[in-house]
Amino acid sequence: MIQRFSFSLLAVLLIFSAHPAFSQSNPANLTNSANIVFGLSQPLLGGFNIEGNVLYKRLVVDYSHGVSLNLDNEFLRDGAQEQGLAVHIPFTTGFGVGYRFNDWLNLRVEPKWHRFELYYDGEAQTAANRIADYTSFSLGLGLYGNFRPFKHQDNFLKGIMVAPSVRWWPEVSTTLDNNQLTYQNEQTGRTEVHESLAIGVANTPWLVNVSVGYGVTF
Asked: What phi and psi values does residue 109 have, to the nearest 5 degrees?
């Protein structure tokens, strides 16, 4: 159900974006710009995220790449906590394409890839200690703000950008069989089942973030 809905979203937006009216409509209040922004939530998990985007008339396109996020045991859902796991996310990456409602609000369809590595909590995260790894693919929506608090200045402050976002990234598929891993847990001494993790807050598809950066208009 989610997979069909997500691909339908992507197909509809791609068809719509091909229409000439999509890029030709440019009310006077729309500013074309190229921007680089950095997420503020990723450093809280030991990593960082960089995004480059272009806002042109009604069209917005972006590419983002996050690296080295760490989820200790207390960040995981109950089943994973009982198994004593910690999760390292070496990358989460993908692009977006969307529509600008106005100069400060846009909606994007976003295919994303996420890599998960499983370890026992408290152990060194080395290849020798790795329990397993897998990749998941999500396809969802992101609602983004685009605020320039100093846009009326005639100096370098003009390009400063603040970009809050709310995203819904449901999982479409993973490299795990049936989206789960059965393994022998060395800490519990039992055969355990690890279900693939969602990329969002509290193992949900939802993410909330604020990015800051700089842009140039054209």
From this structure: -90, 135
